[in-house]
Amino acid sequence: MLTQKNNISKSETVTENLFRDFYGSSTFIEKSAIPKQFGFQSKKNTSFKGYPDFLKEEENYVIVVEAKAINQDDAMSETQHYMLKNKITKDIFGIAISGQTIETLKVDYFIKLNGTSECKKLQVTSNLLTLNNIGQIYWKNKYGESISSEKLTKILNDLNKIFNNGNKVRDTDRSLFFSGLMIALKDNTFRNTYKNIQAPTETEITTKNNTITESHNLNNAILEAITRQLVTKINNLSKEYSWKDKFSFIKNIDYSLLEYIEIIDRIEKNIFQPFQNDEKQDVLGRAYKIFLSRAGKIDNKNIILTPDHVKNLMIGLARLNVNDVVLDTCTGTGGFLMEAMEVLIKKAEGDNKLIQKIKEKQLIGFETDSVLFALACSNMFLHGDGRTNLIFRSSLLNDKNENIINNKETDLLSYIRSLKPTKCIINPPYENNNSIKFTKQALDYLEPNGKLIIIMPTPTLTQNQNGYTEEILKIAKLDFVIKMPNKLFSEQKRTVNTSIFGFTKTPHNKSDDVIFYNLEDDGYVSIQHKGRVDKFNKWFDIKNILIESITNSKEKTGVCEKRKIYKDNILNCAGVQKTYNKNSKMVKIEEIFDIKLGSLASENSEEGEYDFITGSEDWKQHSEYDYDTEALVYVISAAGSLGRSHYVNGKFIASNLCLVLTPKADSKYPVNLKFYNTYFSYMRKKMVSDLADGTSKLTINKETFKNYYIDYIDIEKQNEFANSFIGPFREKIIKLKNETKIAEDNIDSKLSKIF
After folding, report:
1. How high is the pLDDT of residue 7?
2. What is the full DSSP assignment across 430-492?
3. Tell me: the pLDDT tens digits for 132-177?
4. Strand pairing partners for 587?
5. Residues 517 and 483: beta-carbon distance below 8 Å
């Protein structure tokens, strides 16, 4: 009998050791060390105390574990016994385990909510789950499924209306106020007591010299909770920053106590609790965008927030591995770092030491806007933290907007390089040519062979071909360029021509191919009050095809092709078109044409005998002219007409939205203007894609246009093409217009007889 008992004990020890090996030997409290105050009762239902094999107390629930050698029914029965027979006042999560090898383990999970007597068996995997997964399953069973993107947007819009009524919360404070409430709800004390907070008593009122509001105590409770939760240090390379000061405006929030509690309760039930089931959502980034855009303030910020599906795409393009150190030099609300942290933690496969290292050592962010920095830190905190290396200052060395007298640029550069960043994923500021500066600085921070994924205006490299771009290509290879839809930022009332650029920190050879991918359609459509949404569920397939094409260099006509960016030793960042290589030479537009800006505002047309050429396809008239010559008029600043080319021969005046192109005198590049008018029309879509710039209205910069490389075709071939095709085609067009005019006059004549 004694021998049998020892065998049982020994085999249960094997099961317990498998459990310890998975979670770590010190993660759970062992049976012998479980405190008496938990009040577990003996399995024999006597007055004696009993204990489960393992226990772990979390913030909102307690985990009890019972292990058996091979009998899973006994393990389940005893797990449920300890879940029911105790003095615990929290929810309880039960784990029943049996088996002698990791391959033969049987695991069942149970949940019992505080105040109930039901141990609900959970329909989940029969394997050991990480503590993070257990937490997600607990929250999902307690509070329901995670919130959908559409529902989140609706709730945030409704909250914005509440904040706006009576201007109770200033538009510039709303995103911080919302993040403050989310952080306060993370605080156990606040979450369990806020509904019972009372207005100041008569005694409290008499001790105050100033006027106090009914919500005075609740405001203080929120601030205390925020301070408790965010007490950890700011990185010492940051400029001075105070959490208490940043959220101090909350002291002046003046809702009635009942309404205030209802607002917090609404946030807790509809956003905070479901958020625990899906921490991937950038809730604070979404709130920031909605609150500012609805207040009409988003246009005033030099900030363009990255849509969620683009963040996910860029993280995918970075191809993260578990040891990557991820840098974001323009952190914003922290969206890229949160996505990266989620991917890295998943790849850690439950290794708690590795997960801790990811949060403390493998995420680096810079932000200069104090509100966005607060939101980024708050976001990282809500997503499980990772704030150790979030830095409140510019990532640009020698930034003239900052006047830091200690922790100079050399200290900053040394510190970032000591962390050895391997991947950088950013959406930098677009104005004042900042994008190229952030590109260069990010590459300087990265380790050799590190990767930079950056979304920025498409013409950035082209505009800087004779400066920054050459410097960048000396240290980094351009791997790919993905042209994004112009409507990408329409929710923020922006029309921006952007592309995602991928670099590897190793010199670009002139013979290297670059993948150019045209993502004209991301499957998203604009719906009133909802913004751009994936209504027809196209994005998943579009993204996978794109990533496969980039990863495997797969070409597809009209969508994805390899191009070189050097031809004849000349850099052309837009890529050399394969179809022209044999018969053309790359030449800057300014080497072929004299280029002047038109002189007259488009609305200043008047009766006259001379052609007035604007962005419109139809010409106007004017009483004066500037030119009496053969020329091309190219539209550079009229959204719907951008890139249109007009051929003109005679006396005319041009709009100041256009450039006038005339052949250079005694040029080594003689031109047939009819040919090049057709050429510019043929190349219109590509040239606009390559050159259009701006954050609200797209235009083409004159200097960028002048320095753009086009194909110069031999004059004989130009003339041959013009005589064989353009001349006969124009004759047909004129004939068709005349016939159309005759037909319209005939219809008008017959119609007039009826009346």
Report:
1. 44
2. -GGGHHHHHHHHHHHHSPTT-EEEEEEETTHHHHTTTTHHHHHHHH-EEEEEEEPPTTTTGGG
3. 889 888 888 887 766 777 788 888 889 999 998 888 998 888 989 9
4. 710
5. yes
Contact 694, 496 (CB under 8 A): yes
What distances in angstroms separate CA 100 from CA 19, 76, 561, 700, one per listed residue? 11, 17, 56, 71
Most confident by average pLDDT, 134-148, 198-212, 348-362, 497-511: 497-511
Helices within 553-650 (DSSP H only): 589-592
Smallest Cα–Cα separation from 59: which of 384, 360, 386?
384
State the pTM of this model. 0.76
For residues 474 and 202, what is the distance between their CA atoms, to the nearest angstrom? 73
Please state, in angstroms and rounded to a whole number, the distance separating the CA atoms of residues 94 and 83: 7
**Mean pLDDT score, 513-521:** 94
The closest alpha carbon to 427, from 445, 447, 453, belongs to: 453
Q: Tell me if 334 sits within 8 A of 285, measured CB to CB.
A: yes
Confidence (pLDDT) at 55? 97
Q: How far apart are CA 8 and CA 618, in angstroms?
A: 94
- Residue 726 has a pLDDT of 86
With H, G, I as helix, E, B as strand and everything else as coil, classify residue 710: strand
Q: Which of 81, 100, 105 is nearest to 92 (CA)?
A: 81
Structure-block tokens of residue 197: 């907070």
Check residue 577 and give its pLDDT: 63
